[in-house]
Amino acid sequence: MKWKITRNYIDGRGWRDDEPSIDLVHRFRLLDDDGNLYYEGTSDDSASQLAFAPLDWAMGVGCTEIQYLQDSGEWMTLWRR
User: Fold this and answer.
1) pTM score, two decimals?
2) What gap in Å lies between CA 31 and CA 39, rounded to an integer?
3) Measured torsion, CA atoms of residues 16, 46, 70, 58, in degrees rounded to the nearest 10
4) Which of 25, 33, 50, 60 could form a disulfide with 64 if both were Cys (CB 3.0 to 4.6 A apart)?
5) Over residues 68-79, mean pLDDT
6) How far is CA 20 from CA 4, 25, 57, in A?
7) What is the DSSP string of the chain?
8) What's the CA angle centered on 8, arms 55 and 49, to 5 degrees?
């Protein structure tokens, strides 16, 4: 699975990577257990077990939830720890 972080909200740093990638079409966001947004990113998978890879990466900084943007425009939680 390919994925990348496009926006970092931790400590107000807010860096952003706007470089387009044709194969990374699924938008996701990573939140902590209070619902605070830490990261946004894109991936090439939003449905398999591999779609949890960004959450595994971000758990060390306190992320407990990953959400993927649906075609309806709503964010759907795939996992909450």
Assistant:
1) 0.86
2) 7
3) -40
4) 33
5) 93
6) 11, 9, 22
7) --EEEEEE-GGG---B-----TT--EEEEEE-TT--EEEEEEES-SSSGGGGHHHHHHGGGT--EEEEE-TTS-EEEEEE-
8) 20
